[in-house]
Amino acid sequence: MVDERFSDNLLQPLGKYDIAHVKTIDDVQKLITTKEHRKVQRRLRDDSSLPFYDFNRYGSYAQMTAWMRALARNDPQLVQFISIGTSHEGRSIDGVE
User: Fold this and answer.
1) Which residues contact 71 (CB under 8 A, 6 or more apart)?
2) CB–CB of 97/81 below 8 Å?
3) How far apart are CA 3 and CA 19, in angstroms?
4) Cα separation, 46 vs 32, whole angstroms
5) Are 34 and 56 in contact, with CB atoms under 8 Å apart?
6) In 3D, which of 38, 47, 45, 49 has the Cα closest to residue 74?
7) What per-residue confidence (pLDDT) applies to 95?
8) DSSP sequence for 13-51
9) What b/e string do you get for 12-51 counting C-beta neighbours within 10 Å, with b at 16 or more?
10) pLDDT by residue (tens digit) across 18-53?
11) DSSP letters of 59-87?
């Protein structure tokens, strides 16, 4: 996989030494994004009673902590909501384990 900006750096030596090559995927990022979007859409349809957080969109800290708390409530045997301390501004730094 090569960034499009640097593809010539790879293709020129391949051509120079007659090394056969095939480009199988034109835009890897587009393919990944499309597949992830499909997964998210399927997940949304699967079970709307389970906590869900869309990592493809920017959410607020409050939304993220609400999701983490919901995860912990939904499956307390597997997930624990924790606070690992406070920021220099005195705000709680929360997470799950």
Assistant:
1) 51, 79, 81, 96
2) no
3) 20
4) 21
5) no
6) 49
7) 95
8) HHHHTT-------S-HHHHHHHHHHHHHHHHHHH-TTS-
9) eeeeeeeeeeeeeeeeeeeeeeeeeeeeeeeeeeeeeeee
10) 999 888 888 888 999 888 888 877 776 666 677 888
11) --HHHHHHHHHHHHHH-TTT--EEEEEE-
Tell me the one-letter amino acid at 24.
T
Paired strand residues for 96: 81
Which residue, chain included where needed, has tokens 């957080």? 53
Tokens of 88: 């220099």
Residue with tokens 């997930």: 79
How many C-beta atoms surround the C-beta of residue 65 within 10 A?
16
